[in-house]
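Assess this today:

___
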Amino acid sequence: MRQFVSAAAPNSKGLLEITGKDFHYLRKVLRMASGDMLSLSLPGGVLQDATVCKVDDGAKIIELQICDSQGQSRDGQDCPQAQNSAALRTRLALLQFIPKPQKMELIVRQATECGVAAIVPVIGEYTQAGFEKALIKSDRFEKIIREARQQSGSQVETKIYPPQKLSAALDLVEEILSQAQNAGGSSGLANASVVAKIFLYERTDKTVPLSAALSGQKQDCSQAQDAAAACVYAVGCEGGISPAETELLLARGFKGVHFNTNILRCETASLYAAAAIQSALDN
């Protein structure tokens, strides 16, 4: 079932009015009509089933009715039960050293489709001057994230943060994980007491196999034998990650991982890593 990401919450009667570009998306792209059903992602990560109860092509308004806890809309029509696939997926956070703007847009889109909960752009030593300025205007990336969630059906509420230097980015990730633990299940990173921290490295020295890297570390920093429930992974930009940055990552508890494959572009490496991590941990 297709998903629609709403920036607004329904009213007290469980009704949500859709207009403007969102009307065009539901009516012209998804071709929704009265009686059709869809998954509705509300602010805060709440996922609800809804039915289209009214379509007014003249006024360009679609009205959605939220299904109740018994799986019925106000008109008594049965609603399908949504699967909480987000609860079954490995929680991911991406530290992405900033590449060219077009590549960054692709990385954000693909990371969202893969269910990455947090994306922190990193201003690295090899990041070309000025590239981070494209990230300051976040409206473009918020649009990319919303479109990617609707296209993929991702239930994870992906968030992109302001660009940071590596040390500040590492502090921010720790804060994100801590807040997720305190907030509960809406962030996509909650309930993850064991966290793996890895970075992709083009060389083989100072690296471990992915399976060893994913053994994770408990939030109290004690060693953990269980597989991680969350993973923070760092991916370099076009020039990779500098030696000084590599040493900082190692000092902050990250493990280097070298994929024995062809030379990957940074946008390919980010997607490849997300898929490899999810496959290793989810299975």
User: Anything to note?
Assistant: Residues 70-78, 80-88, 220-224 have pLDDT under 50 and may be disordered. The chain is about 30% helix and 25% strand. The longest strand covers residues 46-56. Residues 63 and 237 are 44 Å apart (CA to CA).
